[in-house]
């Protein structure tokens, strides 16, 4: 397939710039497995679409205050995005500046703190905190790294609302946004209904926003992201299968985590980086349904959901969402996708 096959027209005014007043106030576009047409619902309808014995799998990553501003010792302004903390004092960063800093140069951070540029590899810089550590500098001077399509600076509300209520493993530069719709009350309700919950970890990287720049999908080099799927989660998945329940991933990051752990056909514990690129024709091993937000045109995430629910059905659902003026992307509305066929 061609990258252009995943293009759709989206008016700018449908890109959500702020979250809804309450987490579960969003709309929900339901794409049932046995129907061609999507159904308009509210997110509060989700519990009625689930069954006792189902398993919801959440990504518990937490967004770092990864965006930092400062200036080089020579005076030029700099914007950094800490992609990954390698050890307390060092990390990999994207750096925007009028002229790229050279190894050995230092950056004075707004709000206090000092970073030194140690090396560069492709579009990432190895940086080190001077007389401090990176987590402390981010806590002191960092900003919530809102996605590039949100055309405003981060505000106080984003500190809470651009995190899931169950986030606990800091390491992401973007939220697993399907989980933003779940509040503590809904999680308690689902538990009381007999719907089991599990947590994986995928630290979302900046590559999730990177456009596919090749014409043919098979020529794309997928970005790498760190994943953890524990033995306990694997047992929960197997037990769900045994009792006839469904494994429902909350977000494409949970899908990628479960599928990365299932590449040998059966789910096994997985700790490490994955470059799994899911496109139409992929054979899913562990996921029966998913909750997801709407994704950018020509993005790897749109390709993933097309693989899950069928290319024609997904593209038609997106056209429907535009016509019905759903809210798109991170702070936007959600979808509930049921997979065609059996795992």
From TrEMBL:
GO terms for biological process: tRNA queuosine(34) biosynthetic process. It is found in: Cytoplasm. Transfers and isomerizes the ribose moiety from AdoMet to the 7-aminomethyl group of 7-deazaguanine (preQ1-tRNA) to give epoxyqueuosine (oQ-tRNA). HAMAP family: QueA. Monomer. InterPro entries: QueA (IPR003699), QueA_dom1 (IPR042118), QueA_dom2 (IPR042119), QueA_sf (IPR036100). NCBIfam families: PRK00147.1, queA. The gene is queA. Its EC number is 2.4.99.17. Pathway: tRNA modification; tRNA-queuosine biosynthesis. GO terms for cellular component: cytoplasm. One of its GO terms (molecular function) is S-adenosylmethionine:tRNA ribosyltransferase-isomerase activity. It catalyses: 7-aminomethyl-7-carbaguanosine(34) in tRNA + S-adenosyl-L-methionine = epoxyqueuosine(34) in tRNA + adenine + L-methionine + 2 H(+). It is an enzyme of class 2 (transferase). This is S-adenosylmethionine:tRNA ribosyltransferase-isomerase. Keywords: Cytoplasm, Glycosyltransferase, Isomerase, Queuosine biosynthesis, S-adenosyl-L-methionine, Transferase. The keyword DNA damage does not apply. Belongs to the QueA family. Pfam families: Queuosine_synth.
């Amino acid at each position: 397939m061609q990258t252009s096959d995943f293009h759709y027209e989206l008016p700018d005014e449908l890109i959500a710039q702020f979250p809804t007043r309450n987490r579960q106030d969003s709309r929900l576009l339901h794409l049932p497995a046995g129907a061609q047409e999507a159904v308009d619902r509210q997110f509060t309808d989700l519990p009625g679409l689930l069954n006792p014995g189902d398993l919801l799998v959440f990504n518990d990553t937490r967004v770092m205050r990864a965006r930092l501003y400062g200036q080089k010792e020579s005076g030029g302004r700099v914007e950094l995005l800490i992609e990954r903390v390698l050890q307390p004092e060092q990390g990999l960063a994207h750096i925007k500046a009028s002229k790229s800093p050279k190894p050995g140069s230092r950056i004075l951070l707004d709000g206090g703190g000092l970073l030194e540029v140690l090396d560069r590899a492709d579009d990432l810089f190895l940086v080190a905190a001077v007389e401090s550590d990176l987590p402390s500098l981010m806590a002191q001077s960092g900003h919530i790294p809102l996605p590039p399509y949100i055309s405003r600076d981060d505000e106080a509300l984003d500190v809470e609302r651009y995190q899931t209520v169950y986030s606990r493993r800091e390491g992401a530069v973007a939220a697993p946004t399907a989980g933003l719709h779940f509040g503590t009350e809904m999680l308690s309700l689902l538990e009381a209904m007999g719907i089991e919950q599990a947590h994986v970890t995928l630290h979302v990287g900046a590559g999730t926003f990177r456009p596919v720049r090749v014409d043919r999908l098979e020529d794309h080099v997928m970005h790498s992201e760190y994943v953890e799927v524990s033995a306990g989660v694997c047992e929960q998945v197997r037990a769900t299968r045994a009792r006839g329940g469904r494994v429902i991933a909350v977000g494409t990051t949970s899908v990628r985590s479960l599928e990365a752990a299932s590449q040998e056909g059966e789910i096994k514990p997985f700790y490490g980086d994955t470059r799994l690129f899911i496109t139409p024709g992929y054979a899913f091993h562990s996921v029966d349904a998913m909750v997801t937000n709407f994704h950018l045109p020509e993005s790897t995430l749109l390709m993933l959901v097309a693989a899950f629910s069928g290319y024609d059905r997904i593209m038609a659902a997106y056209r429907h969402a535009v016509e019905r003026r759903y809210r798109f992307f991170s702070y936007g509305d959600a979808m509930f996708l049921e997979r065609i066929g059996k795992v």
